[in-house]
Design brief:
about 240 residues; alpha/beta; Rossmann fold; DNA polymerase, domain 1; 2 domains; six-stranded parallel β-sheet; globular
């Protein structure tokens, strides 16, 4: 078994924007005459798509929303997100992301993004940060109805990469996923993939319990060591950094 693809989550792995999302969800609820409870965003929304997050928040409050209205809510929030990013001189990308993608490309791994975020948001950030050139496929929240921890997004990424290059013959076990939330880690594992958990959202010791291995930040991830795990020449337990 060999490593062929590296699949990145987006929010919390590529871009440090969870506070922005929480603010916008709170603002959206206020516009609907509702309130976000303390800790509720972390409980309901972290690692999940806007669709599932908003649907759960409204359901908890006894509000029934049609599919059409839910899509309008999602679009309102996405447009607010893009306006928010437009006000920032520098997009808050996590340290080490660009270097890691460059190393992955140099090692001839294909690279994808699998996220519950809207495609327009992902493409905007990738374009503004110059990361678009590294990405072969994007699976976004508007591509699938399910949300992490369901594995469909990661399985769709495998299909799209194979459609793009049939000679790749990619299988889930050839993929390394980089995630920051428990829902994302669970989704990747359910898809049959190995996962690096990066301690951007939760403490290292909590991420380490969930992922195949963990790093404090992306600058610590070494593809040569990961490849040896995939090749079977090094045990997984040897990979985690000193947390």
């Amino acid at each position: 078994m060999s490593l062929k693809a590296v699949l990145f989550d987006f929010n919390g792995v590529i871009i440090n924007d969870e506070r922005v999302h929480e603010k916008l969800i709170e603002q959206l609820l206020v516009e609907e005459n509702l309130r976000l409870k303390p800790g509720e965003y972390q409980e309901v929304c972290l690692g999940r798509s806007d669709r599932v997050c908003l649907l759960d928040l409204f359901t908890r409050r006894g509000r029934v929303v049609t599919e059409d209205y839910l899509m309008r809510l999602i679009q309102r929030k996405s447009q607010a997100y893009q306006r928010e990013l437009a006000t920032l001189e520098t997009v808050p990308i996590y340290p080490g992301v660009a270097d890691l993608m460059e190393k992955a490309r140099s090692a001839q791994f294909v690279i994808g993004v699998v996220s519950g975020a809207m495609r327009s948001e992902i493409e905007l950030v990738l374009h503004r940060t110059g990361l678009t050139e590294y990405i072969s496929v994007i699976v976004a929240g508007d591509d699938i109805k399910t949300s992490k921890p369901a594995p469909e997004g990661y399985l769709l990424a495998v299909k799209q990469l194979n459609d793009r290059d049939p000679a790749l013959k990619l299988q889930p076990e050839h993929c390394l996923v980089i995630e920051d939330t428990f829902a994302g880690i669970a989704a990747a594992k359910r898809a049959g993939m190995q996962v690096v958990g990066v301690a951007n959202t939760y403490p290292y010791h909590m991420i380490q319990r969930q992922a195949n291995w963990a790093v404090d930040d992306l600058t610590e991830l070494e593809f040569d060591r990961v490849q040896r795990v995939f090749d079977g020449t090094e045990r997984t337990e040897a990979i985690p950094s000193e947390g």
